[in-house]
Amino acid sequence: MESKPDCQPGENTSSASIFPQQHEEDTLPWFAVRLFMAKPQLVMDYLTEQQLHYFIPMEYVDVEDKDHHIRQQLRPVVRNLVFIKKSKPEKAIRQLLMDAPFKSSVIRKSKDDSKYYEIPAKQMFEFQAMCNPEIAMRKFLSEEQAKLKPGTPVYVKYGPLKGLSGRLVRSNKKYFLLKEIPCMGVMLKVARWCCKPLQP
């Protein structure tokens, strides 16, 4: 029987998994959509009305109320970005976005290809799990910042991040698992010894 190495103690090394429940048949890809406005509630209301599944990375921020009390409030990490599941044909989603009360632009495969770039279901599922606002020691990066981070492709074999894959990077003498998707990246603190290199 293979023995498990002792994961370094830390915020994300408990035995509880961070994964939300996922249906096995849920293999639909996602689109990344840039918004040309800063009204996320209008966007969410429209997508819900059109029965489109969407995801907006959220985080807790400190907000001071009129009585000067500080309270935490969930707000979008990036106000001009939303991810939409391909639960309808691309042509139908394209038309719904054209008819929307806001302007947007879907990330495409390339400058020469008009088809939308599809984020694989597994990659998006892992990204959503890592964006859980309840998780401690998490950092969000722009796409450019993520690409500049040197790291080794790994998968997590032990602990609450078990099953996740990404790049093992170092920041401020700590190790993080970095997951990249179009337009942004997210890093979670992880024990290096819980990670195993991905085979080429």
Automatic annotation (TrEMBL):
<dbReference type="InterPro" id="IPR006645">
    <property type="entry name" value="NGN-like_dom"/>
</dbReference>
<dbReference type="GO" id="GO:0006354">
    <property type="term" value="P:DNA-templated transcription elongation"/>
</dbReference>
<keyword id="KW-0804">Transcription</keyword>
<dbReference type="Pfam" id="PF02357">
    <property type="entry name" value="NusG"/>
</dbReference>
<dbReference type="InterPro" id="IPR036735">
    <property type="entry name" value="NGN_dom_sf"/>
</dbReference>
<protein>
    <submittedName>
        <fullName>Transcription termination/antitermination factor NusG</fullName>
    </submittedName>
</protein>
<feature type="domain" description="NusG-like N-terminal">
    <location>
        <begin position="30"/>
        <end position="127"/>
    </location>
</feature>
